[in-house]
Amino acid sequence: MLSVAGADHIITMDLHASQIQGFFDIPVDNLYAEPAVLKWIKENIPEWKNSIIVSPDAGGAKRVTSIADRLNVEFALIHKERKKANEVASMVLVGDVKDKIAILVDDMADTCGTIVHAADRLVEAGATKVYAILTHGIFSGPAISRINNACFEAVVVTNTIPQDGHMRDCPKIQCIDVSMMFAEAVRRTHNGESVSYLFSNVPY
Questions:
Q1: Alpha-carbon distance 132 to 115, whole Å?
Q2: What is the tens place of the pLDDT at every residue in 106-139?
Q3: pTM of this prediction?
Q4: Which of 160, 123, 142, 139 is nearest to 33 (CA)?
Q5: d(Cα 198, Cα 146) in Å, to the nearest integer?
Q6: 132 has which bridge partners?
Q7: 143-148 contact pairs (CB < 8 A, 24+)
Q8: Residues contacting 146, CB < 8 A, separation 6+
């Protein structure tokens, strides 16, 4: 639809699967929220050196290992184990979070069932504080009430989806503004400069 409507270049952020870029016959720049996330962690979590980066499912392992490497901290992941087809999954935590600040990282959160379960599991396992950092905060259905009742210090999202209403309804939600990253990507594309600089740097 975007191509047929006349778009000749796409700039997006944290696609759920990077293969989606291959479905277009026009150039696609998939920006990463990671540099902005690293900046937020260093500026807003004073004890970030005693943190552990946690993926709420096995699929996000690559994302959390990349962030953990850049911060030089450890990582953990939560494996959902389904005993039978229709039974609720039990969550198995792989990694040691005891006495650490756990930072859950994922690309999106919709109804927030998984991250709230994951947060409970981390507290049970001895984490001192739990943060969640998500690129796309969809927050549909019971998401806001689930976050309000959960044990998060903060749930941090970018503004790829407008968050003003969610932030009014839930004081735990904080927002990373990524508009400058998109603006800089547009400027660089327009001037024929390299966009890859933005994959590991924040332009502000």
A1: 8
A2: 999 999 999 999 999 999 999 999 999 999 999 9
A3: 0.94
A4: 160
A5: 34
A6: 104, 155
A7: 143/109, 143/110, 143/111, 143/112, 144/169, 144/170, 146/111, 146/112, 146/113, 146/116, 147/112, 147/116, 147/172, 147/173, 148/172
A8: 111, 112, 113, 116
The domains found in the chain, sorted by start residue, are 33-178 (3.40.50.2020)
Tokens describing residue 148: 């309000």
Token pair recorded at residue 90? 């039990």
**Quick count: other Cβ atoms within 10 Å of Cβ 98?**
9
Closest Cα to residue 2, out of 136, 21, 17, 137?
21
Cα angle for residues 159, 119, 95 (degrees, 5° grid): 110
Among left, alpha and beta (phi > 0; psi -120 to 50; other), residue 109 is beta
Residue 65 tokens read as 């290992």
pLDDT tens across 139-173, in order?
Answer: 999 999 999 999 999 999 999 999 999 999 999 99
Nearest to 53 by CA among 91, 82, 95, 23: 95
Contact, 154 vs 175, CB < 8 A? no
